[in-house]
Design brief:
single chain; about 280 residues; alpha+beta; four-stranded antiparallel β-sheet; about 20% helix
Length: about 280
């Protein structure tokens, strides 16, 4: 695409640009040595993006002047056209060539990076009324392609679109602790509120001389054989990233002080077992 067309395309497209905030730099290293974003980072991108594309950049025209006035320090803005190699997720059919605006970081030497022919994963949403145009869903929603990241994105996408996918957490409902017949024995149950109204509950079991055990149930019936969700799964992400940092007083309004204190301890135990939500 000739560079003279870039301002015109950008002007027609600028209204669709979101405001991005700088992301945290949580990353993990795959067995092959490839640096991968944290599960929470990729899950955020997948959940926010109705279109996920494996593409190769055909052309990248730098945008300067007033149309790049709001670019974050250390980044430069491009209008990119890319050929779609694979469609990982999309609400409808997508053009074989797509265009979008992206703000990319300067390279380690502070120079403008070369994007042409680069293979990327693009996390976006279609722009209404602009066929073939995409709007990125985050500041780092264009990622360099790797087999490891591709596999991670596809795995999370399968979890997200599954019929039994765990819903987003919006808060906590009632919580109670029932002491057992022996000292130190008891069970805490905590009901989780979700965006869809689908039930999720946490149960924490205390037995004398044993380490506390906890489980999560999706549904009305608590399965005694259930356990904690495996780390780096969508259910783990929903809990680790969505649960409040403390039980609200309203959840324990019906409990006496001793049982309420135990329930708070058990809830904190669950949070500690889940670990931090790294993004």
């Amino acid at each position: 695409m000739p560079s003279s067309r870039a301002p015109l395309i950008f002007a027609a497209f600028a209204a669709a640009l979101p405001h991005f905030s700088a992301p945290a730099s949580a990353q993990i290293v795959a067995e092959t040595g490839v640096v991968l974003p944290a599960y929470g980072t990729v899950a955020d991108l997948v959940l926010d993006s109705s279109a996920i594309v494996d593409a190769r950049i055909r052309s990248a025209v730098r945008i300067t002047g007033a149309e790049a006035a709001n670019v974050a320090p250390g980044r430069v803005r491009f209008y990119v056209e890319a050929d779609v190699l694979a469609l990982i997720r999309a609400p409808d059919a997508l053009a074989t060539r797509v265009g979008y605006v992206v703000d990319v970081p300067l390279d380690p030497r502070g120079r403008v990076p070369k994007l042409n022919k680069r293979r990327v994963l693009v996390f976006a949403r279609p722009v209404p009324g602009r066929a073939g145009m995409l709007q990125l869903t985050g500041l780092d929603a264009q990622r360099d392609w790797s087999a490891e990241l591709d596999a991670m994105v596809r795995r999370i996408t399968r979890e997200v679109v599954a019929p039994d996918a765990p819903p987003a957490i919006t808060g906590l409902g009632n919580a109670f602790h029932v002491p057992g017949t022996l000292p130190g024995e008891g069970e805490t149950q905590i009901f989780v509120q979700t965006a869809t109204g689908a039930p999720i509950s946490l149960s924490i079991l205390r037995r004398p001389g044993e380490q506390r055990r906890w489980a999560v149930a999706l549904g009305e019936i608590v399965d005694d054989a259930a356990g904690p969700p495996p780390r780096d799964t969508l259910l783990w992400y929903r809990l680790a990233c969505g649960l409040p940092r403390a039980l609200p007083a309203a959840s324990l309004a019906a409990e006496d002080p001793a049982n309420a204190a135990t329930a708070r301890e058990d809830y904190q135990f669950v949070l500690d077992q889940l670990g931090p939500c790294r993004r």
